[in-house]
Automatic annotation (TrEMBL):
Protein name per its UniProtKB record: Four and a half LIM domains protein 2
Cross-referenced InterPro entries: LIM_FHL1/2/3/5_N (IPR056807), Znf_LIM (IPR001781)
Gene3D superfamilies: Cysteine Rich Protein
Top-rank taxon, per record: Eukaryota
Gene label: FHL2
Amino acid sequence: MTERFDCHHCKESLFGKKYILKEESPYCVKCYENLYSNTCEECKKPIGADCKDLSYKDRHWHETCFHCFQCKNSLVDKPFAAKEEHLLCTDCYSNEYSSKCNECKKTIMPGTRKMEYKGNSWHETCFICYRCQQPIGTKSFIPKDNQNFCVPCYEKQFAMQCVQCKKAITTGGVTYREQPWHKECFVCTGCKKQLSGQRFTSRDEFAYCLSCFCNLYAKKCAGCTNPISGLGGTKYISFEERQWHNDCFNFTSK
């Protein structure tokens, strides 16, 4: 007696008929399509066993139904983009939705890198420094007068130069005798300590902290031998080419 070979679902004989294996069980074409075929997103009909099933994000199409939502051209083996569940060829997507480059005014194609700043978009190769014309990319930049500058070019063109080190002052800074200094460059001529935020004085246009100035230039008290700074209203007494702090001058008459 011949062994039976039936459809796993309807039990009809499959001898001499086309069948499909599903998890090692045979099905006639009709049962397989009714049970397992995907429904086409476009025509809403089953995608039969003899048809090519194209899928994207758990959605399925007949090969002939897989086309651009707008121009209807086939998307088979072509790049495409999705917008609000609709599939679009790159041309239609670009014309409808892609940003326009603020520099060259051309479309920024899907999948290409773009730079964005304050609501405007650029091709990566179009987002360049106004001065050196080199692409800025992901580097820091500074906008000025509706133009973008890389940091080195901005510093060369606009930033004040420290009178001491001749480099750009990008933040903060100190002005002394109408000249700009970095805080770290504005130091005492004697001990080299920073003078920013400290009391200081000057001699021959050189700045000194009070301690260095007193040690180098202040007169010495004939009583205590400490410097008489003369700063901040300090009072002293001078007699016969000698000087005393007020508190150190004791006059004794004979």
